[in-house]
Specification:
globular
């Protein structure tokens, strides 16, 4: 492998799926070094404590932090449900939305002159289909609620800390080769090939939503924290692309200083 031309070594990595890069780097010392350029060109983070800690480990690494050129920030947050019953109702609403079409095909609505027995069967089947207890086991529901409480508590804590802005500023400022930033929320039409958000929240049995219901409108504090991190970087970071998705117009109320900062880094 060491005798391969430098260009061919890089060509091999461009033809390999990103998930296979770590295994290919184990082939030899040369591939281990070349593979660093393809290991973390893009970093995805979600609005969770675990994801923030993962990014912190990357920026501490003397080599990996130099390789990151793109940052994809998912700002999805869980809605608050005050107790398990409310959480269960939310799951029921989600099930109703997702299975109505299938349910109508499997259990068509009886005609108005159908026997009462057909109507009872129809109502019973619909009630079962919309019930979390019918779809999930007791263990799944117990794990789901515990996971939901843990993740919601983490996100609530981050929101109280200005959406983790202080941490983001420090971490982004240590990515000197950052060129591309994407901010994503559930209303965007920019799905990732790998379901990062789905994997993060799947055990809660619920989908995460944007932060439009909170005092800080959708995406504004998260985007400003990214801008401040670039602005505070010791290296002269200039973004080549910025995709904010569906961000709140409230960003325009952030004052001339912040607007000038945005212009300076683009």
């Amino acid at each position: 492998m060491d005798l391969l031309p430098f260009e061919l070594q890089h060509l091999i990595f461009t033809l390999v799926d990103r998930s296979d890069v770590p295994n290919l780097r184990l082939a030899c010392k040369t591939f281990a070094n070349v593979g660093l350029d393809y290991l973390l060109p893009e970093v995805e983070i979600t609005f969770t404590r675990k994801s923030f800690d993962h990014l912190a480990e990357i920026v501490k690494h003397p080599i990996l932090s130099q390789r990151v050129t793109s940052l994809f920030y998912h700002i999805d947050v869980l809605r608050e449900h005050h107790d398990k019953d409310e959480w269960m109702r939310a799951i029921g609403d989600k099930l109703s939305f997702g299975i109505n079409t299938v349910n109508n095909w499997m259990h068509p609505r009886p005609t108005f002159d159908a026997p009462k027995r057909d109507w009872r069967l129809y109502r019973r089947n619909r009630a079962k289909a919309h019930s979390p207890e019918w779809i999930y086991t007791k263990k799944q529901l117990a794990v789901g609620y515990a996971t939901y409480k843990k993740l919601w508590s983490e996100q609530h804590h981050l929101r109280q800390q200005d959406f983790g802005s202080a941490e983001i500023v420090v971490m982004v400022s240590q990515l000197p080769n950052l060129k591309h930033i994407t901010l994503s929320n559930p209303l965007d039409a920019t799905p990732k090939e790998n379901n990062t958000v789905g994997d993060t929240f799947k055990d809660t049995l619920l989908a995460a939503h944007g932060d439009e219901n909170y005092e800080h409108h959708r995406g504004v504090p998260q985007l400003l924290s990214l801008f401040r991190g670039i602005h505070c970087a010791t290296a002269d970071i200039k973004l080549e692309s910025l995709n904010t998705g569906l961000i709140s117009w409230k960003i325009l109320q952030e004052g001339d200083q912040n607007l000038q900062m945005m212009k300076d880094i683009l």
